[in-house]
């Protein structure tokens, strides 16, 4: 079954991480038919060198250079239009997919023709994959995903594979700083898209102190509450869902970074 991989890279990313991510794409038991790599604005010489190196290794990579940085949501929308196949797998350029990830997800789509989006659990690591610090699990069935989405993001974004048309039918990615994916999933679910998460860990997600730092502060909090409000206004969540999940975000976002890191690892992750 043919499918595209959709990735986006920007100037601040680490060339070594990009190399590891691309290696994991090219070492799958079910190889992608195409890797669409959006270059979100001018890149460093080191990042350009990695991209050139891999374009020499394989004809699968299709670069989509943008003249300026437009942000993840817009970059993914542009890249999605360049994906040639009905199925699209998302992948971040600093994470590492396990070798059977795509094969497992393709089987899920083959087994259920009504499926629109399929994700999985992820292992969070710091430094190298031998240093797994926590596990991020997600709800499994469509019914569990729908209920979970009323308060929290029901999919790990870099793990998903989805039907391109289902994403387009729901309006594709829209601006919502840090929450473009959650807002998209909510609209897809309300649009009748069927979701599933595999009960397997098929991706290593890179973390560290900076990840928890990015999930704090007024700017992040404002975006989180705004998206939750939009999801409530769409009719997915009740006012109680909106209020309680927003208050939880207020508490966590305004904590000192060290305490926020502890809360995420202790209460929002599995050790």
Describe what you observe in this structure:
The chain has a single domain, classed as Spore Coat Polysaccharide Biosynthesis Protein SpsA, Chain A (Alpha-Beta Complex). It starts with a strand and ends with a helix. The chain is α/β, with parallel strands linked by helices. The longest helix is centred in the C-terminal third of the chain and has 17 residues, at about 220-235. The radius of gyration is 18 Å and the shape is globular. Strand 6 and strand 7 (about 130-135) form a beta hairpin. Strands 1, 2, 3, 4, 5, 6, 7, 8 and 9 form a nine-stranded mixed beta sheet that branches. The mean pLDDT is about 90. It is built from eleven helices and nine strands. This is Glycosyltransferase. Belongs to the glycosyltransferase 2 family. Pfam families: Glycos_transf_2 (PF00535).
